[in-house]
Amino acid sequence: MTRLEEDETDVADLSTTFTGLRFENPFLLASAPPTESESNILRAFEAGWGGVVTKTIGLHPVVNVAGPKTKFLRADNGGTRLSMAKRADTTLMASWNWELISDKPMDWWLPQIARIKKAFPSRILVASIMAGSGDDKELHAWQTLTEGVQDAGADAIELNFSCPHMDRVDMGSNVGKDPVLCSMSTQAVKAAAKVPVWVKLTPATANIVEEAEATFRGGADAVVSSNTWPALPPIDPDTLDFEVHVDGYVSSGGMGGPAILPLSLAKMAQMTQAFPDRAFSGIGGISDWPHALDYFLLGCGTAQVATAAMLDHAIGPNVIRNLTAGMTAFLERNADRGWTTLDDFRGLRRDRIVAQSAIRRASEYHGGHDAEGYAPPSDA
Ligand SMILES: Cc1cc2nc3c(=O)[nH]c(=O)nc-3n(C[C@H](O)[C@H](O)[C@H](O)COP(=O)(O)O)c2cc1C
C-alpha cells in the first residue's frame, strides 16, 4: 500500500444516506437567515456543510415587522440577569425570532436553486415550502411550490408545519397541531413530488407522536424537529416594555438555541421510539459535535443547525468545521468497536429512555400507589 492509500484509508467516512440521498456529511444548515439567499448558500457549501435547507418559500406575500426580527437571550456569567441586551461577560441561552418565512417570491428563488445545484451538484439542497391547508386552492399551492422547486433542481422538499407565529389557522405550526391537516397537506405534496418529502413538525403539541404518525400516513419520507418553541422576550424592569417590541406591542415568537436542546431531544426521543425504522432529522440547540451526537444516538440520520450558524459569520464556517472534526475524532476513538460510519452508532441510546417506574430505586418503591403518598391515610 502506498503512503497516499494509507492516508486515504485513515480518513473517517462521514458520508451517510438519508431518505435515499447521499450526504458528504450529515450536517445541514436549517431553514433560517443563514439560508435566505444564493450567496449565503454558496458560502455554506464552500464552508463544508453537507446540506442546506432553504429559508421557507411560500406563494402568499410576506411583510415582516417594523423592528428587529431576531434577538439573542443571554445570561450573566455568575449572575441571574437574563436579557437580550448586548453586554460583556454573558453566555448565550437562546435566540428569539418573530421573523416570517422568506419575503422573496417563488420566482426569485427558482433560478437561485438551479444555480446553486449547478455549482454544487453533489451537495444536498432541500427546499423548505409552506402553504395553507384550509381549502383545495391552498392544497394546490403546496403542489405548485413542490413542482417549482423540484424542477429547479431541489434534491428534497421540507414542509414547514412548524413556524410558531402564523396568524392563519391553516398555516405553519397550526398545521403541525392538527393531525388531519398534517396528513392532508403531506398527501397533497406527495401526489406531486418526485423527490423525498421531509416534514418539519412543531414541538408545541401534547403528543408529537400523533402528528408524526399522521405525516407518515400521508407519505412523509422523514420527520424533522424542532422548529423554535413559542416564547416571549423578557420585560425590561425599568421601562416595563418587552425587550423586543414595535410601538410597545409584541406577539409570541419562537425560541431556538442552546436552551431548547433538552426540550427538543425529549420530543425527538418520543418519535424515534415510536417509529424506530423511520428517518428523522434532529434540530435544536446544536452548536458542536456532542449536541449532534445526542440526536444521532436517539436515532436521527441527519442534524441541522440555525442559531449557532447565525452567530458565526452568518453561515457557520467554524460550526461546520467543529462538527466534522468532532465526528472524525469520535469515529477514530471508537474504531476498535468497529464503528466506521454514522449507521454504526445511530440509535444506540434510543432504548435507554424508559418509564419512571422502570428506573432502579434507592429502596423499595411502589410507583406512588401503595404505602406511600397516595395511599389512604390509616386510622392510626
Ligand atoms: C431567525 C430565525 C428564522 C427562522 N426561520 C425559519 C423558517 O423560515 N423556516 C423554518 O422551517 N424554520 C425557521 N427557523 C427555525 C430553525 O430552522 C430551527 O428549527 C430552530 O431555530 C431551532 O434550531 P437552533 O436551535 O439551531 O436555532 C428560524 C429560526 C430563527 C432563529
Characterise the protein shown here.
- This protein is an alpha/beta fold.
- The chain has a single domain, classed as TIM Barrel (Alpha-Beta Barrel).
- The chain is built from eleven helices and 16 strands.
- It has helices spanning about 5-10, 40-45, 105-120, 135-150, 175, 180-190, 210-215, 260-275, 290-300, 305-310, 315-335; strands at about 15-20, 20-25, 25-30, 50-55, 55-60, 70-75, 80-85, 90-95, 125-130, 155-160, 195-200, 220-225, 230, 255, 280-285, 300-305.
- The strands form three sheets. Strands 3-4-9-10-11-12-15-16 form an eight-stranded parallel barrel, surrounded by eight helices.
- α3 runs parallel beside α4, α8 runs parallel beside α9 (about 290-300) and α9 packs across α11.
- The longest helix has 17 residues, at about 135-150.
- It binds flavin mononucleotide.
- Flavin mononucleotide binds near residues 32 and 56.
Q: How many distinct helices? A: 11
Q: What is the structural class?
A: alpha/beta
Tell me, what's the shape? globular
Q: Uncertain segments of ≥5 residues (pLDDT<50)?
A: 1-8
Mean pLDDT: 93
- Proportion of residues in β-strands: 15-25%
Output the radius of gyration. Answer: 22 Å
- Share of helix among residues? 25-40%
Q: By CATH's scheme, which homologous superfamily applies?
A: Aldolase class I
Strands, total number: 16
CATH topology description: TIM Barrel
Distance between the termini: 83 Å
Task: Note the main attributes of this structure.
single chain, 380 residues, alpha/beta, TIM Barrel, 18% strand, disordered N terminus, binds flavin mononucleotide
